[in-house]
Amino acid sequence: MSRQKHKKPITKQLFSVADENAPFTYVEAYKMLCTNLEFITAAQDCKKIMITSTLANEGKTNVSVNLALTLAGYDKKVCLVECDLRRPSVHRFIKVNRNTEGLTNVLKGEIELKKAIKNVTGTNMDILLAGATPPNPSELLSSTKMKDVIDELEGMYDYVIYDTPPVLLVTDAAALGRFMNGALLVVKHDATEKGLVVKAKKNLDSAGVKILGAVYSIYSEKSARAYSYSKYSSYNYYYYYGGYYGYGNERKSKKKDENQDED
């Protein structure tokens, strides 16, 4: 009997704009995104920005982290809030302990907000991780307590970036969106079906969420212009996300790999 070979799991790594070796086009893409947001902000109050996607594996967390880092690089006081309570991954990108107390602990009254916020060393950016995984993410994110947290953060920062789950998989983003000034919809270039993007937009519209714009992810450098990714990004690979656990199905897979990342 032949021995079955097991493929070594691929782990995602963030190509950070804060990396001194980051390609010029990659860094410039996020600067362009920040410039566009500055134009919007000049015309209207836009401090609370939600980042979401249509489906999983479209790069929303990568966009959230790099957008926050880029804004912080302009001497803006920025906080990145991890609202993907089902499948948090910011801790892997920032390289901090997953078990750090965070948003859910604040919402449950277990810790004060200011004590749960952590600074990203060497930057003007703070993060509020997801914290312990709750049984009722949508309810927590749409609660009065969450609104209080959002209001408090608004008074502390120039920008607050909220990383939220995909729109078409769970209702979390729509529930949270009504508290936001607007949302950026991350779309995987040349992969996500147009009909699904339209459906995601309708869902956000129905929830009263203002869409500020869309961000192409995994955009090839061979094309006219990269809005968020270059060919150097590790996101040029495909990763498993969801299915037996996480979005849409709360059953945990017996074969769950702790090294697998999500967007």
- Rg is 18 Å
- State the end-to-end distance: 38 Å
Q: What is the fold-level CATH name, i.e. the topology?
A: Rossmann fold
Helical stretch tally: 9
Percentage of residues assigned to helices = 25-40%
Question: Could you explain the architecture of this structure?
Answer:
With 263 residues, the chain is of the alpha/beta class. It has one domain: Rossmann fold, CATH 3.40.50.300. The chain is 32% helix and 14% strand. The chain is built from nine helices and seven strands. The protein has helices at residues 24-43, 60-73, 90-94, 103-107, 113-116, 137-141, 144-154, 172-177, 194-206, and strands at residues 48-53, 78-82, 118-119, 125-128, 159-163, 182-188, 211-217. A seven-stranded mixed sheet has the order 3-4-2-5-1-6-7, with helices on both faces. Strand 6 (182-188), helix 9 (194-206) and strand 7 (211-217) form a beta-alpha-beta unit. Helix 1 crosses helix 2. The longest helix has 20 residues, at 24-43. The protein is globular, with a radius of gyration of 18 Å. It starts with 23 loop residues before the first helix and ends in a 46-residue tail after the last strand. 44% of the residues are buried. Mean pLDDT is 77; it is low at 1-13 and 222-262.
